[in-house]
Structure formats: structure tokens, C-alpha cells
Amino acid sequence: MTAPHKSRLRRCGARSSPARRLAGATVAIGLLATSCSMFDGDTAAPKVTGAGLGPRPVESGLPAKVKPTRGGQLVYGLEVETAGGFCLPESQLAASGIEIVRAVLMINTEEGSLTERATRVAIAQAIDRKELNELANKGFSSVADGPFAPEVLGALDDPGFPDHDLKAAKEAVAAMKAAGQDTELSLLTSTGPAAVRTAVIEKRMLEEAGFSIRLEAESESDLITRVIGGDYELVAFRNQPGEDPDSNFHWWNGGGNPVNFGRFDDPVINANLATGRSSADRDTRRQAYEAINRQFAKEVYNVYLWYSPWAVAEAADVHGILGPDLPDGSGPPPGRLVTGHALHGIWIDRN
Asked: I want to staple 169 with a disulfide (CB 3.0 to 4.6 A). Which of 10, 80, 146, 209 is the partner?
């Protein structure tokens, strides 16, 4: 787990009505390292929810007996921005119910030399994911080795994903050139400044290994259209979260599946996806998803980069973003809420 960061939150607008603040609680936001500027100390500090990257964010990230004070600090306070690049127009906003979704360099396994496992391994070896995380995220995110976030069924401490090895990557690319294979690749990314910056760093790392990289930037909608159509070679992507791995069945199952964007049709993954879906035994399912995890590491269908924190923004007096406690006594629902969260547990403190 990454150690908590502390920063101040900018005042973005005047305090609004409870109804508007409740509506603001449903806005999903990404936590990015390059966004809004910080505020002066005369602005009321927010309540903080989901102050860590663990599987179960709590209602307050501050000690139970400590109330936020004017000019206070926001724990785990990477600056917050919306998809449009603007601070949300609420004056007291906090990161609530932090969730984890993977950022990956996705590989189109039907394109040219990318059909060969050796090429995909060389790409993974060329990218220093720890350095990339430091340069792109100031080290905030946790580097990922596989498709499952910590505490999710099938997660492994070491699934066997290739380590950074520039020497081995250079040797592999040299062997490809000697065999007459194409070592020029396109890298598709979105047009956001943070995404372009990360892609430029990836381009440099891949070219140090001997690849020639053509960088392409598209709006997010056009990027998704190209990915759906298979019109890419490498693409920066962020998706495929899930509290239960079965929610990724439609992304990874083969057999001509149009939303298997990597275009792989892997019998090991297909069989274990079927086992995980059909079995009610937790150990059987865990073993199936661990096998999937190891197969992704072996075949390198994706270069897993890091777990990207996502959140829901809430005003200081809004509570219950994660929903009421579950009936089995296990507490609130897990905080992996990038695909949505319950609304029936939200309430406003009018005091």
C-alpha cells in the first residue's frame, strides 16, 4: 500500500444547497497527479472518505475524534479533476470510496510481430514500470503485475510477469531485426496531457530497446472506436475492474469475441473463465482465476502498469457513498466502485 500523501484542496466554488451537494456525490472522478491547483488556508476543509487504497475504505480517513477544521489537510489528497480537466464546482469535495482499476498498455495480438510471444515479452521487459510510475504519477500508484487488484479472488503476489530487463529486451529486438521482422510499432493514446506525457515516456523506453515507435493521439471517443475495430497495435487503456473476476468474462473470453480488444483466444483463459463462472466453490474459483493470472503473465497480452485510484466526489456533509452495511455483517460494500455504486445509502448531515 502506498503511504498517505497530504495536500490542500482548492476552493472551486461557493457552497451550494444540500440538493446540489447530494447530486455532486454521484460524480465519478479520477485522481490524477496533474490537475487543480491548491487552495489558501482560509477555505473550509472537507471531510475525507476512503483515505487509503485498501479493499474497504472507511467513512472517514481522519481519526474518529478529529473534526476537519478550516484550512485543514486532505489525506491521500492527490489533486482532483473531472474528465473535462476542471475542478468540480463544489467548495468542499473529498475523495470518497477509493477504488482500483488497472492502467495497461494493451497489445493487439493479431497485428504483425505482436502475434509472437517473444515480441510481447520484449515490450514488457523494455518498460521500467517503477520508473514510469515515478515519472507519471510521482510514485503514488501501486505497480500492477496482473489483472486482479489486491484482495480480489485470483490475485497473486507474483504471477510471473516479466521484470524490467533492458538488456534482454535489446537482445530480443536485435534478433527480430536479424530475422527480418518488423520492429516499428504504433502507440495509441488519448489527447489528455497526462496520458500523452506517459505515452512519451513509454515511447522513449521502447526505443531504448530498439523498437521504433510512432505515437498517435486521439480523443477518448475516437480511441475507443479504434480499439473496438482493432485499428491499433499498442494502446494506453484503463478498464476491466471488478470485485468478482467473472465480471471480466466478456473482456477476456475468446472465440471471435468482439469486445476481447486484445484479440487473443487463449484456451487456458477460456477454460478457467468457464470454471469460475460455473462453480460455486470458492477454492475452485480461486484456483481458476489464479491460473488466468499466471497465463496473462506468461503470454503478456497486456503490459500491466499500475492500479489507478478512482473515487466519488462528495461534499463535507454527504455520507454513505458506499451504501449501507451488507446484511451478512461484513460491513459496507467494497470500495471498488469505478463501475458504479449504490445510491440508496446516501444521506446528508443537516447539522
From this structure: 209
3-class DSSP assignment, residue 184: strand
Q: Are 261 and 234 in contact (CB under 8 A)?
A: no
What SS3 class is residue 95? Answer: strand
Task: Give the CATH number, domain containing residue 138.
Answer: 3.10.105.10
In a domain, 225, yes or no: yes
- Could you give the residue ranges of the DSSP H alpha helices within the chain? 18-24, 117-126, 129-137, 166-178, 193-208, 220-228, 249-252, 267-278, 282-299
Strand bridging mode 184-190 / 234-239 = parallel
DSSP-assigned beta bridge partners for residue 329: none
73 inside domain: no
Locus of grid cell 510477469: 161
Q: What is the pLDDT of residues 57-108, one digit of tens each?
A: 333 343 444 444 433 333 333 334 444 444 434 433 333 334 444 588 999 9
pTM here is 0.71
Structural domain boundaries, residue 122: 102-307
Which residue, 275, 332, 299, 2, is CA-closest to 154? 275
Round to whole Å and give the CA distance between 313 and 30: 10
136: closest CA among 78, 187, 175, 71?
A: 78
How many domains would you assign to the chain?
1
Residue 234's pLDDT band, with cuts at 50, 70 and 90, is very high
